[in-house]
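queue> holo job accepted (1-deoxynojirimycin)
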Amino acid sequence: MIMKRVGFAVGIAFATSTTSVAQSQRLTNRPAETRFVDSVLARMTLAEKLGQLNQVSGAGNPTGPGGGERAARMDQLRHGAIGSFLNVVGADTTKALQRIAVEQSRLHIPLIFGLDVIHGMRTIFPVPLAEAASWDPQGAERAARIAAAEAAAMGIDWTFAPMVDIARDPRWGRIVEGAGEDPYLGAAFAAARVRGFQGSGLGSRDAIAATVKHFAAYGAAEGGRDYNVAEVSERTLRDVYLPPFHAAVCADAATLMASFNEISGVPSHANRHLLTDILRNEWKFDGMVVSDWTGIGELLNHAVAADSAQAGDVAMHAGVDMDMVSEIYLHALRASVAARRMPMAEIDEAVRRVLRVKYRLGLFTDPYLRRDAARERTAILTTENRAAAREAGRRAIVLLKNDQSTLPLRKDVASLAVLGALAADSAVVLGNWTALGRREDAVPVLDGIRRAVSSRTTVTYARGASPTSDDSSGIAEAVRVASGADAVVLVVGETGEMSAEAESRSRLDLPGAQKELVAAIRATGKPMVVVLMNGRPLAIERMQETVPAILETWFLGVEAGNAIADVLFGDANPGGKLPVTVPRVVGQVPIYYNHKNTGRPPTTEKYTSKYWDIPYTPLYPFGFGLSYTTFAYSVPRLSATTIGAGDSLRVEVDVTNTGSRAGDEVAQLYVRDDVGSVTRPVMELKRFQRLTLRPGERRTLRWSLGIGDLAFYDLVMRRVAEPGTFRVFVGTNSADTHSAPFTLRGMASIPVPDRCP
Ligand code: NOJ
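queue> job finished
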């Protein structure tokens, strides 16, 4: 009945739209969609148009201090002054609001409900940085698929994810939300997550629209301080920060979010070069751009706008379509149109983009598609979803050290001490941005261990110390418990809140009295394993020197305790690799593997690029991770020593499991361009593959490289590959590789347009 009303209001017939992952389809002519959107637009008043561009948070408190706030919201809704809600969840709740929009507003335009579904809805998966440590984009796609299906059952049409910001500075708390420091790895995860959220087609009931964010260079915040200025050149922007965004656009991300930061003096919400020249004109993005939370209003603080009206004008002109929370479009743009400062055509275009996303999501056909109370009860936190989270958790764990095969532990050890406040904490394993995740759903490490050990094993717990307090009074008890045990599992790190939005840290060591705790337990001489939990690389040089075994477990979500126990006791063999370089001390930051050589690369000589007091090298290099088995690599074999612009270079390498256990290895291929017209990184990741090998098994991996893999922005900002010599490196991490040279033939630089693959 309601569907008819919507159809009647706009006066045309329409069908559910679908969106596919192929760029060709993204750009295909969609006459039915265009006709439909234009026909709705043609009936809209300016007020209704501005309403579509307005996104509000929450439906308003009916009883709280805001008193009539909810009534006022509902009034806005009836008048078509709200196009979208964020932070409103639940099949029934969203249905009730949707009903008002489609039954009581003049044009019956459905709402779109958005939420930060970052690493799971109710079934919380590993945080994105952890997922990236799996080097398994398909796993990330599966996780996003499950998150989307759960969110869609609970009334959500749209997630503000994936976050694809490259982060080279672990002080920046939001490093936890992305895939780390590398553009290629980041692009693979960006595309996978978009595919996962959007499924086989945006119009299906278990798909939600993705938002690729934050556009752009948000992770380049000076000093790692959130929201701070980014000073990156156009070349670094394009070579390093933009590739994951472009990959997400190529994977058909329905929407994109502008970032809070400025780049070289231009705040992203005012950056027409980014939001229009690059995004629309170069990349042909036809989805919707949403502001970040009050991002348009913040143009006043950036002081590129003197008042709200100017902020609204600047943002609209730059290419921000929907205003998250600041309500500036709603209140200020009318006057701009009247004063002829703002052409109606610009507003129309923004409205079209909003309507288009709603159309693609199938909301005009069935506004209640994603609000299903029955599925909300049955399809959430299922056994299968939990099993998927456990598998994702195991795959994300990185073994950083394992002297004398301390790990895996025996399940029948007589007594085991489990120490550290984080070990018993079920909230912390969920990490940050937990959507509807609940601590009571989560398995802390202590519980996972208790379930895993033999019935003869005594597990004793002591809190010892926590990341949030300097109180060391519990350390003595922890030492006593450790001294009476055969082995110790010590869980230390950060809380989920320490690495997230507005959670930058100036230090990268273990917070609170945890360093003291580690030293005291080490002094007992007991066999010990440190389980790290954190959302950023931690500078743990001292621990690396003194502790025999270290497992990096990030924040693994609802099944963390079980996944960690699987690895501690050898039911799973760790195969994750670091998606970020880990510094020795905070003073090395920013430190990343794909750096430039400099005019004075570090040697033992004095006048070279290094520090007086610490080595130049990181504590753990990008791509590093051990296993309970060992792997050997052959030297890479290349199909040719010279290639031309149209050729592909085939690379083969043998990887052998040389140990006695089955295990996963992530083989990594890097390329170095020996000489360029501008300086080139010392190496760049271009391919990787996670594989499982039985003991003694040898596998030959085959990759093909093309001209696109050699491209960069040259002196005059053309994307080119330059003839000359290159090297291919293949190995187990960025610092441990075998290499082989080849030459790209040609007289001049070869243009390589930045097209979707
Ligand atoms: C601000 C954050 O920067 C952004 O990532 C998030 O999606 C919005 N708030 C909405 O919660």
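queue> The domain at 631-749 is CATH 2.60.40.10 (Immunoglobulin-like).
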